[in-house]
Specification:
The chain has 225 residues and is mostly beta strands. The protein has two domains: 64 residues, no CATH class; 105 residues, Jelly Rolls. 9% of the residues lie in helices and 36% in strands. Strands 2, 4, 7, 9, 12 and 13 form a six-stranded antiparallel β-sheet that branches. Strands 1-14-10-11 form a four-stranded antiparallel β-sheet, with no helix packed on it. The radius of gyration is 29 Å and the shape is elongated. The mean pLDDT is 91.
């Protein structure tokens, strides 16, 4: 019994001495930032080309009969993830009221679709809202054109550049730069909390294939590949 007591006393003395010499223990329950602070995402878009109407399809035939038709061969793909613009041409009197559906991928390579609605005899462009990284199919439903089916279709891209993360609100876009210079006029922004393709920024600077664009915004950490 005395032997065990001596061992206990020696161990207790060791703990006391070690405690005097040891560095204070830091509690690790702190976050890397205060709960009220937010992280700002910086996203760079290299040399986006000027918007246009024919980069993807140029005077392409749509339906050639009353049956549905799909277009799967394109002039080119979007240079960066951005919105699409579809314009009827040719004999636009042959355009019937219909909804054209575009299939492609978003920034992460996930398949997305967007509908473009056209009225009868439409001749003006319909501008999309989603940012497409690639386009794989443009689907025309049955009876999208009338005989003799002489309408043509142009597809290009607009100035809504896709962001790489999601925002809860458009107001969470902080600022932007073009060619390294601060944009004094805020970009026109769209936000979606869970779909990255619906988070876009229409900058005020000139897209000419040589200016780099940077977006600074508060992401919500809900959109990842």
């Amino acid at each position: 019994m005395r032997f065990l007591l001596n061992i206990f006393l020696c161990f207790a003395m060791y703990l006391i001495v070690a405690g005097v010499n040891a560095a204070p223990v830091r509690r690790l329950y702190q976050d890397v930032k205060l709960p009220t602070q937010q992280m700002i995402e910086k996203f760079s878009i290299t040399n986006p080309a000027a918007a246009g109407t024919t980069q993807i399809l140029n005077a392409s035939n749509g339906p050639t009969s009353a049956a549905a038709a799909n277009v799967t061969t394109f002039v080119a793909q979007p240079d960066v993830p951005r919105n699409l613009v579809i314009t009827p041409g040719g004999t636009t009197a042959d355009v019937a009221a219909c909804t054209v559906t575009v299939t492609g991928t978003n920034y992460f390579g996930t398949t997305i679709t967007e509908d473009f609605v056209f009225a009868e005899n439409a001749s003006s462009a319909t501008t999309g809202a989603k940012a497409f990284k690639t386009v794989s199919k443009i689907a025309f439903p049955a009876n999208c054109e009338d005989s003799p089916w002489s309408a043509t279709w142009d597809v290009g891209y607009g100035e809504k550049l896709g962001l790489n993360r999601c925002m809860d609100y458009a107001g969470h876009f902080v600022f932007s730069t073009v060619a390294g210079s601060y944009e004094s006029t805020r970009a026109t922004v769209a936000a979606d909390a869970t779909h990255v393709e619906s988070n876009t920024a229409d900058f005020n600077g000139t897209m000419n294939g040589s200016n780099d664009f940077e977006a600074f915004f508060i992401q919500n950490f809900r959109c990842f590949p």
